[in-house]
Design goal:
By secondary structure, the protein is of the alpha/beta class. The chain is built from 9 helices and 8 strands. The protein is globular and about 50 Å long.
């Protein structure tokens, strides 16, 4: 395990209050962390406050950290695209996407990362819906709608994933090298990004292992508009079924500042 170098990615949007616990779990996990990349999607606090919070936490752990502060909110998809561009310049064996909204137990995810990245798979996706009991503390309506769209995705796109909307994933560098920019650059910048990205990954025939994750309501309010999210997702899947492509994202010019902490 010591030979496997990880880059940890943390997407942050008004969720700095959870970083202290996440850093603690990362430190205790003993994962060989080459770098932590924090991508801030234009959170409401000032840049000086953001840097102060991270430095204060990291004084105890001394991680190598890059803080990326987006000029504006580019959405989950936009932040992923910035991350993927940055990763092309980095050396690592695996990168791990971790959420910062306290919707799952980071310590348990890290245990599963250590356990499973010793295997033959190059792409690991953490799924909320492999085990029914893992969503007992998750909002009922959200759970029902997720299950509906999982089944619809399987039917329309012929992909066999139990949670295509999951953004908690581990991808090896050798697999990442196979992922051309054209795979993801035209996908939406919005929160649908990971749903569509996982379908694209599936079609690239990456060796994927889905791992159960316990899901709950987090302590950061969701900013999604449920009605528009469902509408866009439904018609995007229909378009993919007919054309083999999702609706094209044309706004891919991103501006951000980088801080080495």
């Amino acid at each position: 395990m010591d030979k496997e170098k990880f880059i940890i990615n943390l997407f942050v949007y008004n969720s700095y209050k959870n970083l202290k616990t996440i850093f603690k779990h990362l430190y205790l996990s003993k994962i060989n962390i080459n770098k932590i990349i924090i991508i801030d999607n234009n959170s409401s606090n000032s840049i000086s406050e953001k840097i102060k919070i991270i430095k204060s936490i990291n004084n105890k752990y001394n991680f190598n950290i890059s803080l990326i502060v987006n000029k504006k909110n580019y959405g989950l998809g936009g932040s992923h695209k910035i991350l993927f561009r940055l990763l092309k310049k980095e050396k690592f064996d695996f990168f791990l996407n971790l959420g910062t909204t306290n919707r799952y137990y980071v310590s348990e995810v890290l245990k599963d990362v250590i356990k499973n990245t010793k295997g033959k798979y190059d792409y690991y996706l953490f799924s909320r819906f492999i085990k029914k009991r893992n969503t007992e503390n998750y909002n009922f309506l959200r759970k029902v709608m997720n299950i509906f769209f999982i089944k619809l995705t399987k039917f329309l796109t012929k992909t066999n994933l139990t949670d295509p909307g999951s953004s908690t994933m581990v991808v090896s560098q050798r697999s990442f090298k196979k992922i051309r920019q054209s795979t993801f650059i035209d996908i939406t910048n919005g929160s649908h990004f990971t749903h569509f990205l996982n379908i694209k990954f599936y079609n690239l025939k990456l060796k994927c292992l889905e791992i159960p994750i316990i899901w709950k309501e987090g302590n950061v309010k969701s900013h999604l508009n449920a009605l528009s999210y469902v509408f866009i997702l439904f018609f995007s899947l229909i378009k993919f079924t007919i054309t083999g492509n999702f609706f094209r994202e044309r706004d891919n010019n991103f501006s951000f500042k980088t801080f080495i902490l």
